[in-house]
Each structure stands twice: as structure tokens, then as C-alpha cells.
Design goal:
The protein has 138 residues and is mainly alpha-helical. It is built from seven helices and no strands. The radius of gyration is 34 Å and the shape is rod-shaped.
């Protein structure tokens, strides 16, 4: 409104400056990084990439399952648990194949339900601490 009331050269200069500043403001709103230095833009870019990589690593960690050595460790923990339940390895309860099979089956069935896996081989690495506690408390 002020620019429209000014006449002559002052009015034209004021209107031109006003329009230029308005366009710069509009550009800044549409692209907030446009007025930043290349160094600051690089920092924002690297931060964005770092966050993306962290998300990808987190997803991988959440999905990573136990390796072969850890699977052997699991079977040994399960075997020790069954031996403990049936008193001892050379005891009559452990020697009864049918009973021993039922206890093993029950142990692994309970394990799969507790850790929500189809097989002990699909146990997540993140659950290894929880897994040791599971076997110690059973």
C-alpha cells in the first residue's frame, strides 16, 4: 500500500526492492537450505545420510539371527536343561528315549513360543542375553 502511494523514482525503487525481497523470502520458505553456505549444506547432507545409515543398521540388527556357533551353544544349553530336568544323563529318566524325546520336544516348543520363532536357529542375536536368562530360570 505504501509503495502504491509513492510516485516517481522513489516509488519505483521502493516497489522493485520490495518485490525482490518478497521473492527472496518466498524462495527461502520453499527451499530453506538455499541461503546456507556449502559447508553447512554438506553438514546437513552428511547428517541426513548418517541417520539413514543408522536406521538401516538398526533394521539389520533387529533381523540378524544367531550364527552356527551360537546355534551349537543353544543346543548345548537345551541339552543341559533336559539333563537337569531328568536328573542326570546316566539316570533312568534320561535313558528312557520316549520320555527324553517328550522333554526335548516340550523344551523347544516352549522356547519357540517364548521367542516367537519357527526354529531355535531363527533366534535373534539381540535375544542372546534374554536366552541365557531363559535357560537359567527354566
Amino acid at each position: 500500500m505504501v509503495a502504491n502511494k509513492m510516485v516517481g523514482e522513489r516509488g519505483v525503487l521502493f516497489t522493485a526492492t520490495y518485490v525482490t525481497k518478497f521473492e527472496e523470502m518466498e524462495q527461502t520458505i520453499q527451499n530453506p537450505l538455499s541461503n546456507l553456505s556449502p559447508e553447512v549444506k554438506a553438514i546437513f547432507f552428511l547428517d541426513k545420510k548418517t541417520q539413514e545409515i543408522e536406521r538401516r543398521v538398526e533394521r539389520l540388527e533387529m533381523r540378524k539371527t544367531v550364527d552356527y556357533g551360537q546355534q551349537l551353544e543353544l543346543t548345548n544349553l537345551g541339552r543341559k536343561q533336559v539333563i537337569s530336568i531328568l536328573d542326570r544323563k546316566d539316570g533312568p529318566a534320561y535313558q528312557d528315549r520316549s520320555l527324553r524325546g517328550k522333554v526335548f520336544s516340550s523344551l523347544w516348543s516352549d522356547f519357540k513360543g517364548y521367542f516367537n520363532v519357527e526354529s531355535y536357529k531363527n533366534t535373534r542375536v539381540l535375544d542372546m542375553t534374554k536366552l541365557v536368562i531363559y535357560f537359567l530360570s527354566s
